[in-house]
Amino acid sequence: MITIALCGSPTWAEAAADAVRTAGASPSIHADLSGYIARLADQYTALIVVEGESPGWSAWVAAAKTSPATRRIPVVVVTADAAQAESAIQNGADRVVTPDALPGVIGTLARTPPSEAASALAAQCADPLPPQAIEAIERFNAGAYYAQHDLFEALWMDDPRPVRDLYRAILQVGIAYYQIERGNGRGALKMLLRSVQWLALLPDVCQGVDIAGLRADAAAVRAELERVGDDLAAFDRSLLKPVRRV
C-alpha cells in the first residue's frame, strides 16, 4: 500500500490521517528527520504533508526536494498564514493549503500511477525481454556494472512505455554495485535509494526478470552498507548477486 507522510506534530494530524485512509493510502507520521529520506522511499510515499507553522518546517521540504530518491514526491505545506505560504513555495513546496482544506485535497494531490499506466505496465511485463536487455543482464551478471548501464540507459531512453522503469531499476542497482566496487559506499546507498521508487512500481516478475528477488537483493546490500559504514573492506561482496530470470 502507498503511504502519505505527515511531518511534524500538527493539530490536524488525526483528520489528515482519516483522509489518507479514505484515499486508500496509509498515514505515516514523521516526528524527526532521522532516517527521513529512507523511510519515504521504502514506504513508497505518494505525498508529503508538512506542518508549515512549526519550527524547522523548511527542513522537511528541503530534504525531500534535494534527494533524487524523493524529489518527485509532491510536498504540501499546511498553513493559514499568507506570508508563510509564500515562503513555502519559495522553499520548494508544490502546494500550500489551509488546515481546513487539507482533508479534501489529499486524494487528488498524491502521486500515484494512473490505472491505465498500471494496466499497460502489466501487459508489457508479459512480453519477452528484448535482446539488448538480455545482453545488459549478462553484463550485469558478469560484474560489468558500468557496461550494463550503457545498454539499459539506451533502452530506457528509446522506450516511452511504462516498462522502461524495468530497465531504469536494474540500471540503478547495477550502478550501486559499481560504486561499491569503486569504494564509494555513500554513493551506492544513494543509488539504491533511488532504485526503490522504480522497483516498487514493478510486479514481482517483469519480462521474465525476477523483480521480487532483485528487490530483496538490493535491500540486503543496503542493510550491509549501513552495517559497515565507511569500512567497505568489511562489506560482504557475496551479496552482489546476479539478476535472475524466471
DSSP E strands, number: 7
What class do helices, strands and sheet pairing give?
alpha/beta
Q: Can you count the helices?
A: 11
- Globular, elongated, flat, extended or rod-shaped: what is the shape? globular
Radius of gyration: 20 Å
The averaged pLDDT comes out at 91
Q: Which stretches are low in confidence, meaning pLDDT under 50 for 5 or more residues running?
A: none
The order of strands across the largest sheet is: 2-1-3-4-5
From the N-terminal CA to the C-terminal CA, the straight-line distance is 25 Å
Q: Largest sheet, if any?
A: 5 strands, parallel
What string, H for helix and E for strand, traces the elements in order? EHEHEHEHEHHHHHHEEH
Strand content: 5-15%
The portion of residues assigned to helices is 40-55%
